[in-house]
Every structure is written in C-alpha cells, then in structure tokens.
Amino acid sequence: MSQKVLITGFTGVIGKRIAYELAKKGALVYAPIRARDAADLQQRHLDVLEILREVVPHYDRLCEGRIIPFAGDLRLENFGLSEAQVHELGLGAVSEVWHLAAALDLTETNSAEVFETNVGGTRFLLGFMERHGIRDLQYFSTFAVHGHKPEGVAIEEVLKEPSAFRNSYEQSKWESEQMVWEAHQSGKIRAAIFRPSIVVGDSVIGRYEQFNAFNHAFDVASRLRKRLAEKDGQNLDEGGLKYPLRIPGVEEATLNIVPLDYVVSTVMKLHDSGMWAGKVFHITNPEPPRLSQMMKIFQLSEPWEGLKWCSQVGPDRFADGYEKFAFKQYGFLIPYLMGEAKFDQSNVESILNGSRQPVCNETFLKAIAQRALKNGWQEA
C-alpha cells in the first residue's frame, strides 16, 4: 500500500517540487489548496502541473495521478473541513506531513496575515496531527530565523529569541519553529526543521517564481535602466546604458542564495537517509556569491556603465531623483545587503558526507539573468 503524506504549500515554489518528488517515489500526496470553489481548485491545481511539466527534467506524468488536491485552508482548524470530510478524503491515514505553507512579506504591509498563516497555521496543523495520530513532520522554516546577524556563524540548532528580527516574517517563522520543537521534545511528533536560504530560480533553466531580496533588487535596477535610457535617448539595443547611479549594498558582502533544484535535491536526500528526526538543517549555499559577482552577472546581460553598490548615502546626498527612488525601492531589502553570517551545515554534512548536489554560482546566476531578459526579473 502506498504511503499517504500531506503537504501544505503545494502551490508554492518549493512545495510543488517536493510533492512531485514524493509522488515519484510512489506516495499518495494530499495537498490542501485555498480555493473559492471546485473550479478554482481545479484551475490552481492545473497551473501547478503546467509549471512542473516545464521545469522538471524527464517529467513523469504518471505522478500527477498520485497528487490529490482538496479545498482546504491552513488558517482554519482541520483545514476548514468537518471530521466526516477528513475521513472521506482519507486524511486520517496520512503518516507524514510536509509543512511548507507560509506567508512571505518583507515589506511589513501584511504583518497580520503573516502571523495568522505562519504561526496560527502551524498551531492548527500540529493540532490536526495530534488528533489524527500523525507522528512525522518535515517543517520548512527559513535561515532568517537567526534575525539580524551580519557576521559570525549561525548554528544548526533551535534558537533562543534573536536580539533583533528584520521583519515580522522572520519573527513568525521563529515562533513557529518553537512550537514545532516543543511538540517534538514532548514526544507528540518526530520533526525535522529545514532552513533554506533565499531560494532563487532553477539552476538549469533559471525560471523564477518568488519575490525576494535577490530578484527584487535587480528588477528595480532593470526597470530603472530602461527608464534612464528613454530619458537620455539611449538605444539599449546598440549598447549599454551610461549613467552613474548608486544602489544600497556592501559590494563584498555575500547574499546566501540557493537554486531551487539544489534545495529540493538536498532535502530529499536528508529525508531519505532516515536520520532526520530531531535535527535542524541549514539548506544554504556553502560558498554564497558576493554582491560584486551578482552585479557582474547582471551587467553582462543588461550592460550599465556607472551602476554600483554603495554601503551608505545620507538622505540629503542623493545624486538625483533616480538615485533617491532606487534607495526607497530597496528600503526593506537593505538589511539583507549589508553583510550576513556564515551558516553552519554540520548536520547536513554529517548525513550527506559530501554527496550534495554541487552549487556553481556563476552557472545559476547566468541562467536566471538570461531568462530575465525575456521574461523579466519578477517572473511568476
């Protein structure tokens, strides 16, 4: 009999890929999707499958029949289902939960929804697991639970509250981790906590699905490049832009970004090892690129003489309105562009022992930049 698993966040960037990998291994994958009605549920499910067909190498359509979507809302008890509906769907026979659903907002415009989904949703999910005797939980957190940590080493362990969070998202994920860990320590569940860093496009085709500190930064630069070329009457097809402009960031600082396929591959290997229970794993780039390298890749695809990182500009020292606009657009990203800690991966290495998929920063950055030329940096 096939193992039955439940995955939250199926429509998300990582969730759909994990669901496919589980289905490929023969599992029946139950996926709650927030949907207005049956037609909306079907359409959202089909949208996910279309993306999978594009991005997964050697895609197996037979796996689609093992992914079972149902209308459900993580922010409600039992996903908003009655016990009779839970029984009818067969959710009581689930043996493992993968919890990836989260509200990601770095701008502080939807803090209430962030806490409702990330903290409240996790609380409801743990209650669901307890009521139905489900023991195993693979919980996806974020490396950002370390909060503002511009230097030093971030350890793979459950944390006391950091001295400062950069936004509500980080705090909500830290609070959720605490609940998961408490349930694990009390013996109610067996849990693993995965902390991916900033997940960017697939390393092969560069397809990007999520707004974050990497692609938003270069989306702003790309749009400004076009606007400045129009203002000065420069034809970008005949050469690069020439215009001096500073954007916030420490040139030699690193930004821990990882390609999507690396995250999926590493997580599945850790899970398949069977040695995951009670551990925290940093799914991070062992050698993250510096902002200077990212700028170089950007300028290879979108030439711009005069664009450079700048660690600090006083509010009355902007060169012009365009530079002031750039700093305003980057505002909520600035804490991520001024330096970061190194992320310990001792737990990952102790299990995988060098068998992780290698990460080539130049390869995946070029793949993303080349695709962005055709589809934009905010591809969905």
Word description of this protein:
It is a single chain. This protein has 380 residues and is α/β, with parallel strands linked by helices. It contains 11 helices and 13 strands. Helix 1 packs across helix 7, helix 4 packs parallel to helix 5 (168-185) and helix 8 crosses helix 11 (361-375). The protein is globular. The two termini are 37 Å apart. The model has no long low-confidence stretch (mean pLDDT 93).
Short description:
39% of the residues lie in helices and 16% in strands.
Spell out the blueprint of helices and strands:
Elements: E1 4-8, H1 13-24, E2 28-33, H2 38-55, E3 67-71, H3 83-89, E4 96-99, H4 111-131, E5 136-140, E6 153-154, H5 168-185, E7 190-196, E8 198-200, H6 215-232, E9 241-248, E10 257-259, H7 260-273, E11 279-283, H8 291-301, E12 304-310, H9 321-329, E13 342-343, H10 346-352, H11 361-375
Parallel strand pairs: 1-2, 1-4, 2-3, 4-5, 5-7, 6-13, 7-11, 8-10, 9-12
Helix pairs in contact: 1-7, 4-5, 8-11
- The termini sit apart by 37 Å
Shape: globular
**What is the makeup of the main sheet?**
7 strands, parallel
Beta strand count: 13
Helix content: 25-40%
Cα gyration radius (Å): 22 Å
Q: In what order do the strands lie side by side in the largest sheet?
A: 3-2-1-4-5-7-11
> Strand percentage, roughly?
15-25%
Low-confidence stretches: none
SSE string: EHEHEHEHEEHEEHEEHEHEHEHH
Instruction: Count every helix, treating DSSP H or I runs of 4 or more residues as helices.
Output: 11
Mean pLDDT: 93
Structural classification: alpha/beta
